[in-house]
Amino acid sequence: xxxxxxxxxxxxxxxxxxxxxxxxxxxxxxxxxxxxxxxxxxxxxxxxxxxxxxxxxxxxxxxxxxxxxxxxxxxxxxxxxxxxxxxxxxxxxxxxxxxxxxxxxxxxxxxxxxxxxxxxxxxxxxxxxxxxxxxxxx
Length: 138
Description:
Elements: H1 4-9, E1 17-20, E2 24-28, E3 38-42, H2 54-74, E4 79-83, E5 94-99, H3 116-133
Antiparallel strand pairs: 1-2, 2-3, 3-5, 4-5
Helix pairs in contact: 2-3
């Protein structure tokens, strides 16, 4: 059975898209720890990130870095944290979280409750910067 992320890739479920190319997709987490919390996935459905082939893994990290740079330009923060946990959805994914301190990326924290309009606006802003600055080929 396809994961929820594969359903997003196949446009069966909507998302707040940040960036996409032929192999990867970045979209806002709808249960974010901080504004701008983004998920980056390979379009290829593989459960464990360390089971990805080398090319896909390295491409995911490169794409994630480009997305993180765009997030940092839009969301005021000290850094963009990267986290790979992989228990919530059986599809390899990277969390990119704008942080100002270590506690900002604690997954035990209460999640933000953002409106559809807030999520759309954040996604639009980050996406515009990503498209303007991206150096990664589709």
